[in-house]
Amino acid sequence: MDNRYNRHNRQKYSLKVHIVLVTKYRKQLLKGSIADDVKQKIFDIANIHGYEIIAMETDKDHIHFLISYDTTDRVCDIVKIVKQETTYYLWQKYGSFLSKQYWKKRIFWSDGYFACSFGEVSSATIQKYIESQG
């Protein structure tokens, strides 16, 4: 049996995406306990929503995570959930500190994100496979 793929309701799939979120204004806030809390909260979100965190690490102003997800999920929805829930959590826990960083409203992440999906083989291999059909 091939363990590289998930199976569910007559579907066989392997969906993985590398996501990068950046703090608003590139403020270097992802250090110490805030970084640890963000990572733990993302693990909690993943458990609740059925995602699998394959790898995750923070730098001072951004976080990278590699996540495996189901066919019914959309990357934009995953990002939305992660941003909303981590922002709410951080403002609950670090409100007085964050209000000195972001004086206008309760924000933490920049508006955009980076996402790159991939599979177990290169796009060149898939292209050759498709072209060889028929």
Automatic annotation (TrEMBL):
GO terms for biological process: DNA transposition. SUPFAM superfamilies: Transposase IS200-like. SMART domains: Y1_Tnp. Residues 12-133 form the Transposase IS200-like domain. One of its GO terms (molecular function) is DNA binding. InterPro entries: Transposase_17 (IPR002686), Transposase_17_sf (IPR036515). It comes from the Bacteria. PANTHER family: TRANSPOSASE FOR INSERTION SEQUENCE ELEMENT IS200 (PTHR33360). This is IS200/IS605 family transposase.
